[in-house]
Specification:
α3 packs parallel to α5. The chain has eleven helices and twelve strands. It is of the alpha/beta class. A hairpin with an 8-residue loop joins β11 and β12. It starts with 20 loop residues before the first strand and ends with a helix. The protein is globular, with a radius of gyration of 19 Å. It has a twelve-stranded mixed sheet with strand order 7-8-9-6-5-4-3-2-1-10-11-12. It binds S-adenosylmethionine and iron/sulfur cluster. S-adenosylmethionine binds next to β3, β5 and α11.
Length: about 350
């Protein structure tokens, strides 16, 4: 039986940031090939996804217990596409019982959600974030690398609502000349639904997406467009380190958000660790390499948390804030390995 989390044990990193938030990838494979994440020409079907190398459910539970001992209380499951991991509701049920986890969420492309939403809800999943870059069927198909159908996603959303998920967050990565003409249509679709659409700046993550700064649409531009059509009022952050700038529609039709990871980076409050499906820890989304955890996990959650605390106390990452001052581009972990 694990001890309850003891806030006195909670380590701070070298910039005084606690470890409150874990993004855990349960699988590195995906059924989509979004160009900004996993372009099909760079990540073909026979890419060599390592099913045998994935952490087992026992290892994942030990890992989550170890993180929770250090004060991690927000856990998000991600991927690749997490719904491709076999038995996911059983894993959710185990993680929902870990002492200290106050918020258990998942990020998904929702293409397979219709068949899993109820089981995930019953297992204890509290919140959903759904990635959705366009509503137009042809554009949606193109953006998914020719593999996704918007109707499947809409069916997944409906199933999630029926299962009791509310205030679902929708992430829309906006790229100039690609889907920026869909912005008002997306906002109109989600206004008044109780769900929260967030526009995300296209980021220079990974090494294979051929990032082009000219395709980044700054949040301030999107804010001005939405505000001109539906006046907005700024809202306070929900918690320290929240990445989205929150705004309310002045007419009471709910909330919308902007994530400015390129034009207004926010490393100063980053309390997030990321673990890939094969059990490597990344202390920054832009890390070049991770710390393998599997041998630490074999020692049990208490010993694991001691090693983890030591590692976290050495952390000093703030890549996004330094990006403009770096002379050469750095090698980054791929987004589909650490899950956003
Ligand atoms: C890597 S995906 C994993 C979970 C799931 N497959 C999904 O798409 O929701 C997590 C998030 O990363 C975002 N993402 C991937 N590459 C990105 C990029 N270059 N810039 C901004 N966001 C990106 C996706 O839009 C998605 O919301
Ligand atoms: S963003 Fe998500 S759905 Fe798209 S390729 Fe990456 S992992 Fe797959």
């Amino acid at each position: 039986m694990s001890a309850l989390p003891n806030p006195a044990q909670a380590p701070l990193d070298r910039l005084g940031r606690p470890l409150h938030d874990l993004r855990l990838s349960v699988i590195e494979a995906c059924n989509f090939r979004c160009g900004y994440c996993m372009p099909a020409d760079r990540v073909p079907d026979d890419y060599g996804f390592d099913q045998a190398g994935r952490l087992s459910f026992d290892e994942i539970e030990t890992l989550v217990r170890g993180f929770a001992r250090l004060g991690m209380h927000k856990l998000r499951l991600t991927g690749g596409e997490p719904l491709l991991r076999k038995g996911l509701p059983a894993l959710v049920a185990r993680l929902a019982k870990v002492a200290g986890i106050e918020d258990l969420a998942m990020t998904t492309n929702a293409s397979l959600l219709a068949r899993h939403a109820q089981a995930l809800r019953d297992a204890g999943l509290q919140r959903l974030t759904i990635s959705l870059d366009a509503l137009d069927p042809a554009l949606f198909r193109t953006l998914s690398g020719g593999r996704g159908e918007i109707d499947d996603v809409l069916a997944g959303i409906a199933a999630a609502e029926r299962a009791g998920f509310s205030a679902i967050k929708f992430n829309c990565v906006v790229q100039r000349g690609i889907n920026d003409h869909e912005v008002e249509r997306m906002a109109a679709h989600f206004r008044g639904t109780g769900h929260v659409l967030r526009f995300i700046e296209y980021m220079d993550v990974g090494t294979c997406n051929g990032w082009d700064r000219a395709r980044v649409v700054p949040s301030r531009e999107l804010h001005a467009r939405i505000d001109a059509r539906w006046p907005l009022r700024a809202l306070d952050a929900n918690y320290r380190g929240e990445v989205a700038e929150r705004h309310a529609f002045a007419d009471g039709a709910g909330e919308i958000g902007f994530i400015s990871s390129v034009t207004a980076p926010f490393c100063g409050d980053c309390q997030r660790a990321r673990v890939s499906a094969d059990g490597s820890l990344y202390t920054c989304l832009f890390s070049g390499s991770g710390q393998p955890l599997r041998s630490w996990l074999a020692e049990g959650d208490a010993a694991f948390s001691t090693r983890l605390a030591e590692l976290w106390s050495r952390r000093a990452d703030r890549y996004s804030e330094l990006r403009g001052r770096l002379s050469a581009p750095r090698k980054h972990v791929e987004m589909f390995l650490v899950g956003g």
